Amino acid sequence: MVQQGRMPHALMLHGPPGSGKRTLALALAQYLLCHNPTPCDACGQCSSCRHAARMEHPDLHFSYPTVGTNAVSEHFLKEWRTTMEKSPYFDAFEWIKTIGKDNNQGNITKEECVGIVRKLSLKAFLGQRKVLVMWLPEYLGKEGNRLLKLIEDPPLHTYFILLAENPERVLPTILSRCQMVRVGPLSDDEVAAGLRRLYPELDNGQVYVAAVLANGNMQTALQALDNHDNRFATLFIDWLRACHLSNAVGWVNMAEQLAELGREPQKYLLSYGLYFLREALVHHLAPALPVRLQGQELVTAQKFMARLDVHRVGLMADLLSQSYYHIERNANAKALFLYASIQLHRFMHSREEAPRYATTGKAANIAAPSASAIP
């Protein structure tokens, strides 16, 4: 697009986490700002390239979720550069945790939008072009309306590169002003090739296992190699066990425990739950495919699917998705998780066909729980 003069002033790269959208955006921004670009890439040698590589270019601006009513990205620029240098494949939860605010939700504030308008209205410092890379425009909410005029009619040689994971959560008025480019998940071979470049000392077996478990997410592959314990996997399985039992006190205790996590960890837990249900269902329906769950997760998934049908798993997934939606909108976490626990128990022990339950809204007949709980 750049070579043919078709580069849009607003480009949205959208795709799943860990697919390399940020690295692609940085490479494109550096190419746009390079003084001596080659047909295939930025030269990497000019002063503009050196500044862009260190994310210190005065005409390269970043916007990302922060925490606080009046917070702006510039307040966390040092942490952003450090985290990007360490690994560019982090997600929103890890970023919020890095800036020390994991008990709150991230957002892109009114002050941030006002600052973007001010910065992009200035003249370029080192060349003619200015580039704004915005990670997760989903966090703009209604504040995105403040950027509509700028995105629709920006100053000459000004470019927006937006990186979205859930474009359906971005304001339609912003989407309509962007050219959409999907960045698909990485293949297992691509993840394995990347891991071999980063860890040449590892044997092929370790690399293959990490690549398969990653499911196209480079961050997941790196975490698998680092042997990080997934406390959210353990917590979600504990929650399933508690929901399986007819123990209201246990549901209340789990709701209180989950309510203390904070908004971003709660969203991460629910996201993991959706991943677990999806992988459990895939393994149940197509056991010949590579297994992306391991250890106790896989054992639990197998016994979990032995007790449920596909429709009830779908209802459980819908429940977790709705819970995520309401957590984002500051629902009372304790009440929400207690309600979700009751509903999960109903789905696990209902004898009624799931489609009828889902369409009529009638209460399902609750069977007594089996003697053996979910392991």
Average pLDDT confidence is 88
What is the CATH fold-level name of the largest domain?
Rossmann fold
In the CATH classification, which architecture of the largest domain applies? Answer: 3-Layer(aba) Sandwich
Range of strand content: 5-15%
Q: How far from one another are the termini?
A: 53 Å
The number of helical runs is 17
Tell me what the structure shows.
With 375 residues, the chain is an alpha/beta fold. The protein has 3 domains: 10-182, Rossmann fold; 187-228; 230-360. Helices cover 51% and strands 7% of the residues. It is built from 17 helices and 5 strands. The protein has a 5-stranded parallel beta sheet with strand order 2-3-4-1-5, with helices on both faces. Helix 1 (21-33) packs antiparallel against helix 2 (47-53), helix 9 (204-214) packs across helix 10 (218-225) and helix 13 (263-285) packs across helix 14. The termini are far apart. 35% of the residues are buried.
